[in-house]
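User: Continuing from earlier, I have the next pair ready.

Assistant: Great, send them over.

User: Here they are, in order.

Assistant: Folding the first of the pair now:
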Amino acid sequence: MDSANRDKGQSSPSIKAIAEACGLSRATVSYALRGHAKIPSSTRELVVKTAEGMGYRANRHMSRVMSDIRGRTGNYYKENLGYLVHYKSSDQYYAWPTTIWKSVQKRAAEIGYGVDRLELDDTKSSLQTCERIIRSRGIRGIIIAPFTEAHIRLQIRVENLAMVAIGHTLEYPDVHRIGRDIVHSFEKIADHIQLEGYQRVAYASELSHEDRMDKLPLSRYLMKQWDTGLFSVEPFVRDLSEFGPSQFLEWFEAKRPDMIITFQGNLIKWLELGGYHVPADVSVIRLNSDGVDTPDSGVYANYESLGETAVEQLSGLVERGEFGIPTAPKTVLVKGLYNEGRTLRKPLSKLAHAVC
């Protein structure tokens, strides 16, 4: 059906009509339009393209009614949610996006949802393609994965969608979000650093990372610098072009901290490059440790819980019919897990296995 016919108000084609056009059963078409995993991807693609060409639009109200009915009989399949992710936020570049994605899939399956992964690139047409897929499949809820850059604005139609963003990189639309409780992590670490007798504590971070974290870590460090002599060292916070081993070592040799709090794991390699040993010469604690049983001491971000919590929040919005931009967006903060590691001269033993 062309756009002119749709504008005249012709009704959306029936499942039966789409099935006849595809040469498939109505049940197969129904499952395919919901993105069910039991239908091969090639068949789903055929059905979606045919349905789009015929002007099909999912009946959201009926989908919700059927989800409610199915929900009364345990974790019966309800519908598919969407997971919108930028192509740079993939395991080709980092490990944590895969951890979040797998936790989203797992938690969604546990409560009766499938998940369609929708990948964006930097073109306007990519977002338009994702919007067409969302509409044709009748997806009512979208999780927006963290981007690798801050201040992202997505010009996406949200009036019929429930949305939850992970992290602070999405600036628009202003929707509900799930984030790390980085302030709590910083406070817990700071308290125990003081107990263990560290005297010159410094903070080092690349500026774009601060932007992605809404500058929360740097603000906490500066607050501690204001109200305690412990955090007296000028922080090493630089733009990417000035955040390299030579600049870092020059700063380190001038300030000589006995502990560095950071997100960047490469600082340890830079210190070794300069002839310094961790933790003999300086202790390093990371705010994004790679896990709870890894060499780098610090806080693991608990990416599994971030993904799970996003699914739980989004499914609630969908089931309550809360679509569009919220008038008062809510942020749910997830605490990290302390990893003792081996990069502290004086281990924060009282934090072992603690929630941070």
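And the other member of the pair:
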Amino acid sequence: MATVKVKLRPSTVPGKAGTIYYQLTHLRQVKQITTKIHLHPQDWDSNKAQIIFTDSTSYLLQCKIDRDLDRLKKIIYKIDAECANYTVNEIIEKFYQTTADYSYFGMLIPMSATATAGYLLPVVFAIATALPVLAVAWILAFSVQQMGSFYGKMQKVQKWMNLIVGVVFIIIGIYYCWIMYL
């Protein structure tokens, strides 16, 4: 059975953050999966192999590490059950394949649980998905005679809504990129 360890590779540049990586070992073969998580040595507890919590960002980073470890353990368990002969490269290949398998809901709930104002994320999602449904229902409720004038008004509203929603999503994306990667 393969083993997984989380380690911090210190930077060669003094004062610069090091990189977290996962060390996989199986049948005396050792490989590494490098993450995009960068930490200073004082923010890493090498005995417990985890981040020392100083703020919400460090907690989010530790959650990402925990999710990755859980995925790796599930992959190893599944490969162990399927076949006896496998390599570390096969584990790494499956790890990269499953990275894209997370759904929006699979990310929304953990993000909600860890974010400072996370309780708002499902509410915003619910409103954002309900608005188009309500708009279509409202349109269907109007008679065919009023459809032409209503459609013209909706085109004007749609231009502004597209702009507003686009800006909001970009801001949210930048915010979460800032939290996760900087």
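Worth noting for the second one:
The longest helix spans residues 147-181. The CA atoms of residues 53 and 59 lie 6 Å apart.
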